[in-house]
User: What shape does this take?
Amino acid sequence: MLQIRLHGRGGQGAVTTAEMLSLSAFLEGHYAQAFPSFGSERTGAPVVAYARIDDKEVRTHEPIQEPDVVLVQDRTLLGVVDVFGGLSPKGYAIINTAEKPEDVVPELCKKLPKGHVLTVPATDFAIKAMKMNKPGAPMLASLAAATDVLKLESVQKSFQTRYPGKVGDANAEAAALAYNYLKDKMKEGK
Amino acid sequence: MLEKIKFYQTGSNTVGNRLLNPSMRTIQASVDRPNALISGHRACQGCGEALGARYAIDAAMRATGGQLMVVNATGCLEVFSTPYPESAWRLPWMHSLFGNAAAVGSGLASAAKIRAQKNGDSVVPRVIAQGGDGGTTDIGMGCLSGMFDRNDDVLYICYDNEAYMNTGVQRSSATPPSARTATTMPVGEHPGADWGKGKDVPLIAMAHGIPYVATATVADLRDLEQKVTKAMSYHGARYIQILVPCPLGWGLKSSGLTVTAARLAMETGFYPIFEAEYGKITSVRKIRAKQPVTNYLKIQKRYAHLLKKNADPNTVARLQAMCDQNIKDFGLLGDDQPELNPTAIQAYERSQAI
Amino acid sequence: MTEQIEGSLGVAKAVALCRPGIVCAYPISPQTHIVENLGKFVKSGALKNCDYLNVESEFAAISVSIGSSAGGARTYTATASQGLLFMTEGIYNASGLGLPIVMTVASRAIGGPINIWNDHSDSLSQRDSGWLQLFCESNQDALDTHIMAFKIAETVGLPVMVCMDGFVLTHAFERLELPTQEQVDAFLPEYEPREYLTPKEPISIGSMVGPEAFTEVRFLQQRKMAKALKVIEDVTAEYRKITGHHSGGLLDCYRCDDAELKLIIMGSTVGTAKDEIDRLRDKGVKVGLISLKAFRPFPYEALRKAIGDCKKVVCVERAFSFGSRGIICPEVKRAMEGTGCDVKTAIAGLGGRAIFGTTINGIVRAAFEGKFKDEMTWFDVNSNVLNSYTKDGEGVTFPEGPLSDSQLHASVK
Assistant: This one.
């Protein structure tokens, strides 16, 4: 079972991102689950959402304490919330920023295997493609680029299913931008 | 045609049915009257509520061709009419709780509509929800306002006897100032119910902008029948408040004074009788022979403390002023036109308190 | 059809498949998404011959439901927590009148202090209300149980509460399999009440019953509850046959064979516990789980059979009775009277405190180590929080949890 924790701020669509993550996995034939940290968070407050992917029924409903992947949708949460708490030593961290991983989270880069901490300017891609700070699709596309957990097409299809028409297509475009950006980066790295 | 009728019973304001053509006769005069609330129930002698309910529900039965269902709030009417295993109701009738008759009525009306829709019936049974003033103006107010808000197809009838009679005559928000109840006893400096308290539910109903609001009394049963008939010609939320004196709770000098008390409430201006459509007053029942308020007060023990030798005369004067204000606001005399925005009588009481 | 959707949407779709005539609700978290979706189905025309009523309170929601059910329409509503309490007068009335309303309780704690998170204090507060109470362990179970609930309610002539954990289930996005409309239509025919208000056959409902017949009315109501036990089993069997979904039932056993300890759990914690029990079984720990699905009527016989020869039982309870102890435990003790079975309560997961696999692990270990001395133990209590209150004020400090009932009582001596 793969466990993913998403950190964002109210209004950025972190809960939707988790749901789309589960839908993407479902579209690929997996069992998946997504759920928010339940609270009464208002716009701008730190928000946590969770997702699980497995090849058999996901029965547990406990919050994820030891994630395999952490997605940070808002860079300003670093240092405010313990976003990487419990992260598996072999896990992945993807942060929404244009800065380099070593500059943003040098300690984490030392802890995790090489290439497991990634940064992506997801908000820039979101604003470019859909004029909104909804970095969910590019964040999930980054996960698809960095791991083989998801395919880009599934991420795109999940958003197009949830938001048929222009909004879904714009999300798909933002996802593609992030995916290609990271793939290029990874090539450079090699 | 009324002009052509020779009035034999002059001064009584009643007209023998035999003098009218059949279409103008009262529903109760008909041999095939619905008898929705049949005799044998357990109401006290002289019960105004039983009288009012009988006339109102029969009128609605006639207006709907018998396609009528009734929801009853907890209270005297429910208790005296349905002691298990008997029921005095000869129509579909249900009782749920004290404060929810309006909402149960909404659900019942909805179910009737959906059932007719599913079965392809063209006739949809209509719904009346009814309760006393406690079940309406106090504990049932939320559900009543919600039913008005949604404009559900329910006629709500409040039988207003101005206190909680079923539980032993306690004050409700429909209890008039200075009246004695078990919780507003005639003791202390200001005996009876406090001034500046209470609410005017017909005006509150009008503020919802519902199709039809009316007040009536059991002293003018033709007027009551006509209002119920008119209410049933509308769809949507409707409200009729009927003054139904309670011989026991009001301490009427005799149980035969129920209708007299109701008539004096009208003729003094104590209880304005009017109709309103879509939030605007459209007709007023004029006072026929204006009476001083003392004539109304003196036949009721609940006001006896006001007429004692050592009583404060100002209280009766204030009640007279209240009647006069009603007469002015609602245009109850002669050719007076009602105020465009009648005000709850409590407003005057409260403004005086400051 | 298999879909990846929110539990609330799954339940809304399941309710729509049952073709209700009236849906009526007042918003309260975490029930809102269910009724929002139903409102959309009605407004869009996807759910035909159905009225959706936006009411002004939960008291009105249950009252409208009473009216519509008495008027012969299949009726659904949903609530939680404070809303359920605000309905209480109508809840008792609906069961007393024998109206087959189905209501979701998206279980949530009761305030004060206000708390919007999941536990079972709301639904269990209504255990004596005369409603059937069915608990759901997953969203699949929840959507299936709603469909079964209409059939159970209409067969028995009593209302049914379908209790699903608020947020944990209602807001979880999962793979759900919905039966087809044809399957549901075959299982649950158009509602034809035996008795309802209609001018065609006037009856009086809800008259005043005095001492001469009230006991008998209650006896007959209790008889319906007794009848419900078999109806739940029969309806479950029929539903499982049609859909192949393993949902519903009075209770469900998981790895109970040869278990030396059996946990009894209601609701969404069951899934979490199953995973942990698998891990414990891998290590040779002989523990099993009974998922209690029907709390009212309480399945005493079925439970006695399910516990069998096992002499150690711990009820993981997400509510308790003030001034008393656990709520499930005494029922289990009644079921096991005379068998020498040791039944205890571990209180956990109040007001949304997460129950982790590790929590379950801890309860199992404590049970095997004989650490449950008292009938009730506050298992996941945080002593630091307690001490921050009692230390300065009363000079009382609590050791690190779990805390037993006798520790609590000793602290006031």
